[in-house]
Amino acid sequence: MLVSSRLKPLDVRALQALGEYVNIIPVIAKSDTLTEEERDNLKARIKRDIAAYGIKVYPTNAKNDYEEGELARNAEIAVRRAMLQLNRVF
């Protein structure tokens, strides 16, 4: 899998300029195709680049970094609640 290791200078300038006017939210596309180690390394590299270039991103905190297991449990709970609601309607 080929993943760009750094932001290009044009990307940096654009993100710095846009960060003054809009919320920038970093997203790792197709992260499900990466191993956990690759994903974690890429996430750390992105965070380093953002800090190094002074790019303003949408405020986040560690409490919003959910583990995959927690996300799966939350999705399962949401599906169960939806099914209960459907049963009540019909």
Gist?
With 90 residues, the protein is an all-alpha fold. The protein has one domain (9-89). 56% of the residues lie in helices and 0% in strands.
What does this structure look like?
This protein has one domain (9-89). It has three helices and no strands. It is elongated, with a radius of gyration of 18 Å. The chain is 56% helix and 0% strand. It is an all-alpha fold. The protein has helices at 9-18, 36-53, 68-89.
Q: What is the count of β-strands?
A: 0
Which blocks of ≥5 consecutive residues have pLDDT under 50? none
> How many structural domains?
1
Strand content: under 5%
Radius of gyration: 18 Å
Helix proportion = 55-70%
Mean pLDDT, nearest integer?
79
Provide the descriptors you would attach to this structure in a database record.
single chain; mainly alpha
